[in-house]
UniProtKB/TrEMBL annotation:
It comes from the Bacteria. Residues 1-20 form the signal peptide. Keywords: Carbohydrate metabolism, Glycosidase, Hydrolase, Polysaccharide degradation, Signal, Xylan degradation. The record marks 158 as: Important for catalytic activity, responsible for pKa modulation of the active site Glu and correct orientation of both the proton donor and substrate. The active site is at 32 (proton acceptor), 211 (proton donor). GO terms for biological process: L-arabinose metabolic process; xylan catabolic process. GO terms for molecular function: alpha-L-arabinofuranosidase activity. This is Endo-1,4-beta-xylanase. Belongs to the glycosyl hydrolase 43 family.
Length: 313
């Protein structure tokens, strides 16, 4: 791993450029990567860990975005969204995801609600993938008093969105309990009830859903990957329908060893699948100072995802 001090020197000589080696961003701590392919470009939306080296909790105030045309050279596109953009939120810029629909970009985020105890999910909108983004609703889309599946106040986290081929959009999210709802085509409202997703696991423990759902579709099959157990592995299930039933398929990545959490996105860019995740591998990194990393992979012939090792340089 390239020492942070050396990375900082390189940053000063090469203003907005990040590096190809894992972790891919070395001048700041980034977490919860959500990648979006749009117009021959990959946009990588991340959380931003600002805890001190001895910190014992998350310090997360805003979200960052990077872009690349080759998954090797990354350009820092700034910090286009902060918790302060949401008048209903009071902190904790936790994981989110951006998706495009009809030329608008919707950024689903999680933050701590000011008046309804617990985490909540909001949505910001922009005409550009790099912002500026503004709160689309002026209130949260999902709050803790609407969802009673887990009994905890931080279950309304980690939104992931997919628009199916027929135009129906789905929002998934959760901690301990996994939930989904059908979004309307305006992408900022929903119809029908909030549903709990039963997942079939091979066993309890390391494969059990913890958080960080990510939904993607390939060759007519829906893939639901998620952080499982503790420390978190990344596991996945598949289904022939976005509403299940889901069949457990295995672990994609074992716990990283440097961060208790992991959080993934899975994309295909120029015909190559990528698994994007976080660890604590930078010098003085760890649970609250995480870093985004990327692995290339190929699906097995039967559509399953192989187990992936972390790489670093
Ligand atoms: O970054 C804060 C939280 O840690 C995320 O919401 C979870 O997925 C875990 O990565």
């Amino acid at each position: 791993v390239r020492p942070l001090s050396m990375a900082l020197v390189m940053l000063w000589t090469s203003a907005a450029t990040c590096f190809a080696d894992n972790p891919v961003v070395r001048n700041t701590y980034t977490a919860d990567p959500a990648a979006m392919v749009y117009n021959h470009m990959v946009y990588l939306y991340t959380g931003h860990d600002e805890a001190s080296a001895t910190g014992t909790g998350y310090v997360m105030r805003d979200w960052k975005v990077y872009s690349s045309t080759d998954m090797v050279n990354w350009t820092d596109r700034g910090t286009p969204l902060a918790v302060s953009a949401f008048s209903w939120a009071k902190g904790d810029a936790w994981a989110g995801q951006v998706i495009e629909r009809n030329g608008k970009f919707y950024w689903y985020i999680c933050a701590e609600h000011k008046t309804i105890p617990g985490k909540a999910i909001g949505v910001a909108v922009s005409d550009s993938p790099t912002g500026p983004f503004r709160d689309a609703l002026g209130r949260a889309l999902i709050t803790n008093d609407m969802t009673k599946f887990s009994g905890i106040s931080w279950d309304d986290i980690d939104p992931s969105v997919m628009i199916d081929d027929n135009g129906q959009a789905y929002l998934y999210w959760g901690n301990t309990a996994l939930m989904y709802v059908k979004l309307n085509s305006d992408m900022i409202s929903y119809s029908g009830s909030i549903n709990n997703v039963p997942l079939t696991q091979a066993s309890f423990g390391p494969t059990q859903f913890t958080e960080a759902p990510w939904i993607h579709k390939r060759n007519g099959l829906y893939y639901l990957s998620y952080a499982s157990g503790w420390p978190e592995a990344i596991s996945y299930s598949t289904s022939t329908s976005p509403t299940g039933p889901w069949t457990y398929r295995g672990v994609i990545m074992a716990p990283t060893g440097t961060s208790g959490t992991n959080h993934q996105s899975i994309i295909e860019f120029k015909g190559q699948p990528y698994f994007i995740y976080h660890n604590g591998a930078l010098p003085t990194g760890g649970d609250y100072r995480r870093s985004v990393a990327i692995e290339k992979f190929n699906y097995n012939a039967d559509g399953t995802i192989p187990t992936l090792e972390q790489t670093s340089t």
